[in-house]
Amino acid sequence: MNLESTLLLTDLYELTMLQGYVHEGMNERAVFEFFVRRLPKSRNFLLAAGLEQVLAFLESARFEPEEVDWLAGQGFHPELLEWLRDFRFRGDVHAMPEGTVCFPEEPILRVTAPIPEAQIFESRIMNLLHFQTMIASKAARSVLAAPGKELVDFGLRRAHGAEAGLYAARAAFLAGFSATATVLAGRRFGIPLSGTMAHSFIQAHDSEEEAFLRFAEANPERAVFLVDTYDTEEAVRKLVALAPRLRERGIRPLAVRLDSGDLGSHARHVRRILDQAGLTDIAIFASGNLTEERLQELVWTEAPINGFGIGTSLDTSSDAPYLDCVYKLEEYAGKPRRKRSEGKATWPGCKQVFRQCDREGKIASDLVALEGEEHPGDPLLLPVMREGKRLAAPEPLRSSRERAARSLASLPEDLRGLVPGAVSAPYPVRFSTKLDALRRTLERALA
């Protein structure tokens, strides 16, 4: 079963609702919007990601004959099964481009299609957009906390499954990370690869000197040495003694890696040892349960560390492991629809988001309005698919990455910090007069 195209990767209620729509002959066009209700307590903004995987899924998703046969054994009606056999998505999609900074209550993606088509994709659209937006937003904090530093995704082994590890590498690179240790992400997405060695390689040899030499001989272009298996500073002295032999063999040590202890203190001692030996070109790379707060501390205290490997906290988004996101019906059969549930009410109608910037190019405010309204600012929801076909070739990941860099650069200074409490006021997201009037009209009609 191919996860990238099977429509069985969904919630049961999507199929039971689909059976209801088909049985009733409900096939009018619907508008569904994906958005985040509120920010996690530790976030000032979000970074939209995952659109490429959504579009690829919409293009390829189908029910294979054996899947339809299996659903027949689950008690679904013949009329639905026949509908499923020929199913293809033929709707329209508008979306914020990947790498766009966004905020609560703003549609990040909008699907317009006959209601059975739009409904069946709810779970997978949420799954794809939620995860990558969550990880990209987490990764962006490290990018802002450690400007100019090499940041490498080390999180595959702690990710919640293979797909999560793969897409976490993609989302982190989009947000500004330099590389990943996940090899498949390098092949699939063109992300630069970076990695060193494990402690087991050192332990498997009778001495650190032997381990360093053998590793360098086997990997002359990737000579990065893990130095904290036993005694960190003593290991660096051994590497210094070994350096002339490596040079004779045409091998240039690139870096040493610190993975435990007081990273700032170790880095200062290691830098001093290397510099006194004239090895000023050997970089220092650090890892070990790093968070963006720890990165910021090391940067602020001017620890001589050139790059960081970030794993568990990134790939699990440990401080904010989920987003309160939804995919809601906003219009059906030409009529606006509104959910009024306590604490979960929605804004009705097909919408657009307009963004205004100040004279310095920093984002200043967003306005959520009804589609067709005209307002100052740039519209953020752009057409990306019509009648089930993309309107352009898939965007290169590096283009999305460049957009993310521009988006992060446009953030006002108080939104760039790691502590939301330091923000003087939440970023202003307003709603147009016409949209608010529509909301009040529906409230009176349903009262």
TL;DR?
The protein is built from 16 helices and 19 strands. The protein is of the alpha/beta class and 447 residues long.
What does this protein look like?
There is one protein chain. The radius of gyration is 26 Å and the shape is globular. Helix 3 (65-72) packs antiparallel against helix 4, helix 7 packs across helix 15 (397-409) and helix 10 (208-218) packs across helix 11 (232-248). The protein has 16 helices and 19 strands. With 447 residues, it is an alpha/beta fold. Helix content is 40%, strand content 18%. The protein folds into 2 domains: 12-135 and 320-446, nicotinate phosphoribosyltransferase; 196-305, TIM Barrel.
List the helices and strands and how they pair.
Elements: H1 12-24, E1 29-36, E2 46-47, H2 51-60, H3 65-72, H4 78-85, E3 92-95, E4 101-102, E5 109-114, H5 115-120, H6 122-145, E6 150-153, H7 162-175, E7 179-180, H8 183-189, H9 199-203, H10 208-218, E8 224-226, H11 232-248, E9 255-258, H12 263-276, E10 283-286, H13 292-300, E11 307-310, H14 312-315, E12 325-332, E13 335-336, E14 351-357, E15 363-370, E16 378-379, E17 382-386, E18 389-390, H15 397-409, E19 429-431, H16 433-446
Parallel strand pairs: 6-7, 6-11, 8-9, 9-10, 10-11, 15-19
Antiparallel strand pairs: 1-5, 1-12, 2-4, 3-5, 3-17, 12-13, 14-15, 14-16, 17-18
Helix pairs in contact: 3-4, 6-7, 6-13, 7-15, 10-11, 11-12
Q: Strand fraction band?
A: 15-25%
**Helix coverage percent:** 25-40%
Indicate the CATH architecture of the largest domain: Alpha-Beta Barrel
Poorly predicted ranges: none
The radius of gyration is: 26 Å
Average pLDDT for all residues: 96
User: In the CATH hierarchy, what is the superfamily of the largest domain?
Assistant: nicotinate phosphoribosyltransferase
* Count of distinct strands: 19
CATH topology group of the largest domain: nicotinate phosphoribosyltransferase
- Put simply, the count of helices is 16
Q: State the end-to-end distance.
A: 48 Å
**Shape by Cα distribution:** globular
Question: Which class of secondary structure composition applies to the elements?
Answer: alpha/beta
Kindly give the count of domains. Answer: 2
CATH class bucket of the largest domain? Alpha Beta
Biggest sheet overview: 7 strands, antiparallel
